[in-house]
Structure formats: C-alpha cells, structure tokens
TrEMBL record:
Record protein name field: tRNA-specific 2-thiouridylase MnmA
Reaction catalysed by this enzyme: S-sulfanyl-L-cysteinyl-[protein] + uridine(34) in tRNA + AH2 + ATP = 2-thiouridine(34) in tRNA + L-cysteinyl-[protein] + A + AMP + diphosphate + H(+)
Keyword tRNA processing: yes
Gene: mnmA
Domain of life according to the entry: Bacteria
Annotated site residue numbers, Interaction with tRNA: H137, Q351
Role played: Catalyzes the 2-thiolation of uridine at the wobble position (U34) of tRNA, leading to the formation of s(2)U34.
Subcellular location as annotated: Cytoplasm
Enzyme Commission numbers on file: 2.8.1.13
Region span, Interaction with tRNA: 159-161
Length: 385
C-alpha cells in the first residue's frame, strides 16, 4: 500500500486534487506531487466571481482561481477550471435562500460538499481515471477492521472540519483522501513555504463564498426580491412588542438588532414564516432538550434503524465541542431523535447536528442530519439544568 492506502506505487496512482486556491489544498497538491503521484488539479468556478475579484476572506473568487493556476504551474501539474455555476446555484444558493425564508438557519457548506464536491467533482475525477480525490479539509480518514473507511476528527481540534463533512457517504469515503487530517495548521504553512508556494501566507477563508462579509439578508433580498414580508415581533405569550421588515433579517438566538425597549434582554426564540412573526423571549427559553433530525447520513457500524437510546456525542454547531446525548431512530417519521444530556441554547432548524462515537478529540463521525424540530425545556427546567 502507498501513503494513500492504495495498492499501487505512487507514480502509477492518479490523484485529482480539489484546488481552491488556498494554502491547504495547494499543500495537498504539493505533497502528493513530491511523493511521486500522478497529480491533476481541478478548481471549481462556483459563482459569478467577477464581482468578487480582489475580495479577501472568501473562497472560490476570481483571485483564488488565479492562485490555484499559479500553484499548479509551480508544481508542474495539469490544472483545469470547471464551470459549475449552474449546478452550484441550483443545489446550494437557491436551497440556501429557500431555507432562510422558511425560518431556518442553513449551512450551505454542508450542501456544497454533499452535492457538488463529493458528488459532481468526485464523478469527474472518476471520469479522469483517478484512483482518488484529495482535498485540503482538516479531517481524518482511516481504514476500519471491516475494510471500510471511517471518518474522524482532525488532529488539530481548532481546525477540525468534520462538522461540515458528516454527509459524506461510505462509498465516497472509499474514494476520498484527506492528507491534512494529521497535521496542525502551522505545519501546513511551513510545508507551503518549503514547497515554494506563493500562497504560503494567504489568509484563510472566513465568509461563505457567495455571502460577502456575512451579509445573508442582502443575498436573500437579491435572490428573492419579493420575499421580505414585514411582520410582528411578539413575546412568548403573543403580545406584540414591535414590527420587523422580514424574518430573513433574524436568526434563532439573536439578541442584537431587535430594537425593542422592554427593560430586559430578549433573544429570538423562533421564527414563524407562515405568519411572518418573530418570537422573542428570555435566554432561558432558548434551552433545548430534544432535537429531531431529517436527511440523516449514517456511517456507524450498527444499522440506524436498530438504534434505541444509543449513547453518543453530538455537535449542534461547528464551534461547539461534542456533548453527551442519546440517539433513537423513529421509523414512523423516518427521523432520528436526539435527547441531550445537558441543555443547548440557540439551536435552530436548518442547522446540522453531527453525531460522534464519543467526546474525544479524535472521535469517529457516526453521521448526522438536518435539524427539523426542537423541543424547549419545560418552564423552570432551564434554570435547574
């Protein structure tokens, strides 16, 4: 087996590298080329990058395509730019807008990995007779005792991206490789300098690529100009406290920007798109005890349908560490039920809930799904939790 766990010598092993133009994917291409692999770089044009040229902090912009091309030239590998704008708009951007207008808080990076990179791009890599598709994600993949590959958290917990890759299927994992999963970020930058890559000091991406400066409402308003419905801001009892210009300006857990003078801090508890109401209340009302997940992707050894009150660990946001919970499968609804051991605040429909085998820093990803429903704690329970 070579270093990618494939039964060929490197020079006979073709690897397609998804090159975003950033330091991480560039180092992946450089390392594999240095080891003697037959490396092909592919960069995806995912949206109209002309308007974003020279904008810092976002992936997939025009300058990033240029940077990827320069790295490929430096490494002496073939490089292709594929126009995926139409499929990205249909599979990611339009779904993002629809989810937001439904009162959810979507995570488009999950859908991009699921529908674009690990489906369409992976199929393209197969068409090029590649043996593997490698990316610059910070996540680990290892061969399990049954011969399948498991997905694990990265060595560097500050860089771990397993939360965004829970939807990766077992079949995709067999073809995917993540060479940076066992490296800290500072080592990646050192390798970029050693390889003489021009992107060695390039800043990391921060924004969602098609959402400049994180201004979600501006994007939604442009995509759905007639969708912003003014409505009422009400408390948990239905009392009107004010008005708003559209629920797209609010997310669950939000405190700032409510423009209410009621003498106490209030938070967005839920959004009601049918009535265009924003429901606010005290922070204790954000406490969640149960979560229902749809569109579940399962990577665990035990069949999902056989799980009843299974002890697991879950993350409801990428910035939170896994916390103890129990998982059961509800065959009637086709959903997974998560019971949290400790309260979670600000959980919103549309977000991802990722399931791990335990709370360890290198724990295995068992799967995850989209949060469809949450159940708040009973009055008074939040304070006691």
């Amino acid at each position: 087996m070579n270093s990618l766990d494939l039964p060929k010598p490197p020079h006979e092993t073709r690897v397609v590298v998804a090159m975003s133009g950033g330091v991480d994917s560039s180092v992946v291409a450089g390392l594999l080329k240095r080891e003697g692999y037959d490396v092909v770089g592919i960069t995806l044009q995912l949206y109209d990058h002309g308007a974003a040229t020279h904008r810092k902090g976002a992936c997939c912009a025009g300058t990033d395509i240029h940077d990827a091309r320069r790295v490929a030239e430096r490494l002496g590998i073939p490089h292709y730019v594929l126009d995926y704008e139409d499929r990205f708009r249909d599979a990611v951007i339009d779904r993002f807008a629809e989810s937001y207008l439904a009162g959810e808080t979507p995570i488009p990076c999950v859908e991009c990995n699921r529908a674009i990179k690990f489906r369409d791009l992976l199929n393209q890599a197969r068409d090029l007779n590649a043996d593997a598709l490698a990316t610059g994600h910070y996540v680990a993949s290892r061969r399990m005792s049954d011969g399948s590959r498991g997905l694990f958290r990265a060595l560097d917990p500050a860089r771990d991206q397993s939360y965004f890759l829970y939807a990766t299927t077992s079949a995709q994992l067999d073809f995917l490789r993540f060479p940076l999963g066992e490296l800290p970020k500072d080592e990646t930058r050192r390798l970029a300098r050693d390889l003489g890559l021009s992107v060695a000091e390039k800043a990391d991406s921060q924004d969602i690529c098609f959402v400049p400066q994180g201004r979600y409402a501006d994007v939604i308003a442009r995509l759905r100009p007639d969708a912003a419905r003014p409505g009422e801001i009400v408390d948990l009892g239905g009392r009107v406290l004010g008005r708003h210009e559209g629920i797209l300006h609010y997310t669950v857990g939000q405190r700032r920007g409510l423009r209410l003078s009621v003498g106490e801090p209030l938070y967005v508890i839920r959004l009601e798109p049918e009535s265009a109401r924003v429901v606010v209340g005290p922070r204790s009302a954000l406490a969640t005890s149960r979560i229902r997940l749809s569109d579940v992707n399962w990577l665990g050894a035990t069949p999902l349908a056989a799980l009843v009150d299974e002890p697991v660990a879950v993350r409801v946001r990428s910035t939170r560490e896994p916390r103890p919970a129990h998982l059961s499968w509800d065959a009637g609804s086709g959903c997974a039920e998560i019971v949290l051991a400790t309260r979670e605040d600000g959980v919103s429909p549309g977000q991802a809930c990722v399931v791990y085998a335990d709370e360890g820093s290198r724990s295995r990803v068992l799967g995850g799904g989209t949060i469809r429903r949450i159940e708040a704690l009973r009055p008074g329970a939040a304070e006691a939790a």
